[in-house]
């Protein structure tokens, strides 16, 4: 099962990046769940996507995920 998940990593990263470019608020719940993944690259991409999407729900998800991610949210919110 782990190999299957690893095979999907490039597709998952591409999807997250696509959602970031589209700044789709409807993607916030999905991206929020990805913040709990064990893959640092995927977590980073999801956090970046949430920061790009912005808005209250995205920033709250970032704040709740981790103190370091909360710092990203604070910088994004200040813009």
Concise synopsis of the structure shown:
By secondary structure, the protein is mostly helical. 80% of the residues lie in helices and 0% in strands.
Task: Give an account of the 3D structure.
- With 79 residues, this protein is mainly α.
- 80% of the residues lie in helices and 0% in strands.
- It is built from 6 helices and no strands.
- Helix 3 runs antiparallel to helix 4 and helix 5 packs antiparallel against helix 6.
- The chain is globular, with a radius of gyration of 12 Å.
Order of helices and strands: HHHHHH
- The secondary-structure class comes to mainly alpha
* Weakly predicted, low-confidence segments: none
Radius of gyration from the alpha-carbon trace, in angstroms: 12 Å
Continuous helix count: 6
How far is it from the N-terminal to the C-terminal residue, by CA? Answer: 42 Å
Average pLDDT taken over every residue: 83
Helix content: over 70%
Largest sheet: none
- β-strand amount: under 5%
Shape call:
globular
Q: What is the total tally of β strands?
A: 0
Can you lay out the helices and strands and say which pair or pack?
Layout (H helix, E strand, L loop, with lengths): L1 H6 L1 H14 L5 H7 L5 H14 L2 H10 L1 H12 L1
Give structural attributes.
79 residues; mainly alpha
């Amino acid at each position: 099962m782990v190999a299957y998940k690893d095979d999907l990593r490039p597709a998952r990263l591409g999807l997250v990046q696509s959602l970031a470019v589209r700044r789709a608020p409807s993607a916030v719940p999905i991206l929020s769940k990805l913040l709990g993944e064990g893959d640092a690259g995927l977590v980073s991409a999801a956090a970046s996507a949430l920061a790009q999407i912005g808005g209250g729900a995205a920033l709250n998800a970032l704040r709740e995920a981790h103190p370091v991610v909360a710092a990203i949210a604070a910088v994004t919110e200040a813009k």
